[in-house]
Amino acid sequence: MKTKILITGGAGYIGSHTVINLLKAGYEPIIVDNYCNSEEWILDQLHTLTGEKIKNYKADCNDIEKLDTIFKNEQFGGVIHFAALKAVGTSVLEPLNYYKNNIGSLLSIIELMAKHSVPNLVFSSSCTVYGEADYLPVNEQHPIKTAESPYGCTKQMCEQIINDCLKSNKLNSAVTLRYFNPVGAHPSGLIGELPLGTPNNLVPFITQTAAGIRSELTIFGNDYNTKDGTCVRDYIHVVDLAEAHVKALDYLGDNKPSVSLNIGTGRGSTVLETVKAFENVNNLKLNYKIGAKREGDIEQIYAETSLSEKTLNWKTKHSLEDAMRDAWNWQKYLGTK
Ligand code: NAD
Ligand code: UD1
Q1: Of 10, 64, 204, 233, which has the fewest beta carbons less than 10 angstroms from its beta carbon?
Q2: CA neighbor of 126 nearest in space, from 274, 267, 8, 14
Q3: Is 13 noted as a catalytic residue in this protein?
């Protein structure tokens, strides 16, 4: 019998890609999502892509009674907890919502995992926990800095909660994945990131500019201390990121110790390099200008990945160009809907 894995936030950007990889690896993903930042037609896309009807429940992870029934019915072998609000700017304006949603949902999940003896948790964290790094590439031993936003703070607090619950045996085992910058889309162009309103993140802004939805991209600053003056990030293709979740479940299935891991490529790319990669691989010109720095932006960050590669027996396979091609395919597909 296949191991059932609860995928909270499974209709979202990273969750939907992970569902595909889990099916391929022989797991049975079961989605719980309240669709506060996703749309239900993504489930039809998953059906088209995999030929499988993915079992799913419309539920809020803070609704512990509803979740309790789902846990009782399904007997999960593990949980991947993606469900969270993720807009940094909004978290500054609506901190209570962010704390309630992101912390509350993790508390419900851990409580129910304990009650129903579900052993393994994979948690979505972020490189934001490191803040402005003291050294690069940043490794997992790097100190956790004061969070720069309520969103970042929820990730730090969730990591702390997981560690405390592991120590007290309220949680059996967990892998915390600290994602760097997820970009790209499924190569089919049938699923990808669905930003609501004006995107804050670079790649959706690039693709929407290329599609004519935005008139131009503003590059936030070009006098940083980097090779071309623009900020450096570690952009990881979402399909590589999805695979890391499968490997994390495999790892926990082998009863290995709980761990926090960086999930990136280990390579830093500047904003200008990213724009150029988009232009080159898609053979088009992007309308962009250099503007003021964005408040709170970090100059550069990229991952030390040796621990995650060794621990999970995993490595990224896709290039920045692959991600830019796939992100554009997805944007073009959205234009046909
Ligand atoms: P997303 O918004 O596309 O997906 C999150 C999903 O969770 C959505 O479908 C949303 O409807 C659902 N959701 C949110 N709160 C819920 C709740 N209380 N109950 C049920 N469903 C709920 O986001 P994503 O990019 O796929 O991110 C997934 C996870 O990865 C999040 O925890 C996010 O903080 C983390 N993360 C994302 C990034 C990124 O850049 N995308 C980077 C680092 C970490
Ligand atoms: C954001 C979040 C961070 C989260 C990360 C991954 C903020 C302040 N931080 O960071 O918490 O972990 O995403 O999801 O939002 N850029 C432009 N023009 C644009 C948009 C972005 O030049 O229109 C630049 C930014 O200055 C940055 C780079 O592109 O240098 C990437 O930006 P973005 O996609 O927002 O990600 P992060 O800044 O890494």
Answers
A1: 64
A2: 14
A3: no
Percent of the chain with pLDDT strictly greater than 90: 95
- Give the closest residue (by CA) to ligand 2 atom 29: 202
pTM of the predicted structure, to 2 decimals: 0.98
Quick one: pLDDT at residue 197? 87
From the CA of 293, give the closest atom in ligand 2: 26
Tell me whether strands 269-270 and 217-220 are parallel, antiparallel or unpaired. unpaired
The CA distance from 8 to 35, in Å, is 11
Which residues 6+ apart lie within 8 Å of 273 measured at CB? 228, 320
CA proximity to 269, closest of 237, 306, 302:
302
As a whole number of angstroms, the distance between CA 249 and CA 2 comes to: 13
Checking if the pLDDT of 321 tops 90, the result is yes
| Cα distance between residue 171 and residue 162, in whole Å | 8
Q: Kindly state the tokens that stand for 282.
A: 């898609």
Return the amino acid letter for 140: E
Using CA atoms in the order 143, 312, 76, 99, what is the torsion angle rounded to 10 degrees? 20
Q: What is the pLDDT of residues 183-229, one digit of tens each?
A: 999 999 999 999 888 998 999 999 999 999 999 999 999 999 999 99
Looking from the CA of residue 86, the nearest atom of ligand 1 is 34
Say which of 151, 235, 251, 302 is annotated catalytic. Answer: 151
Residue 287 CA to residue 199 CA, distance in Å, equals: 16
